[in-house]
Amino acid sequence: MVKRYDDDDDWDDFEEFEEEVEPGILTTTRILVALLVVFVVAIVAARLVLWEKPEFSELTPRLFGLWTTTYPEFNDRYVEFEKNRVIFGTGGTGVVKFKVSGMDVVKVGDLDHYTVFYRDLAGTRHSVDVFLDQPGKVLRFTDSADARWTRFDLSK
Question: Would the pTM of this model clear 0.70, i.e. be above it?
Answer without folding.
Answer: no
